[in-house]
Amino acid sequence: MSKNSEVIKRRKSESPEFKQAFEDEQAKLDFADLLFELREQTGLNQTAFAKKVNKSRSTIARIESARMEPSFSMLEDIAQALGKRIEISFVDANQRVEEKLVR
């Protein structure tokens, strides 16, 4: 376990506020990774991907860098433009993030 991981684990156990803030940010990063992976699967750069899904390149960049949380309707627009659909599931709050990302 890295030094940072140890500090995060300790701070999460000591502070409910830190734990919540960390988990909120982790969720943003997880979604950013998913959108990045989706774009990579298309073989498109950000500009071409943005054009295909009718969004600006800066919007795609902000989502991929976790600086922006897209609305559900934006996610639906992106999915529809790519011939995809969105699946949502509820998972146990204690389930590790790595387990959640397995498709």
UniProtKB/TrEMBL annotation:
GO terms for cellular component: cytosol. Residues 37-89 form the HTH cro/C1-type domain. Keywords: DNA-binding. CDD domains: HTH_XRE. Gene3D superfamilies: lambda repressor-like DNA-binding domains (1.10.260.40). It holds the Pfam family HTH_3. GO terms for molecular function: DNA binding; DNA-binding transcription factor activity. PANTHER family: HTH-TYPE TRANSCRIPTIONAL REGULATOR, METHYLPHOSPHONATE SYNTHASE. This is HTH cro/C1-type domain-containing protein.
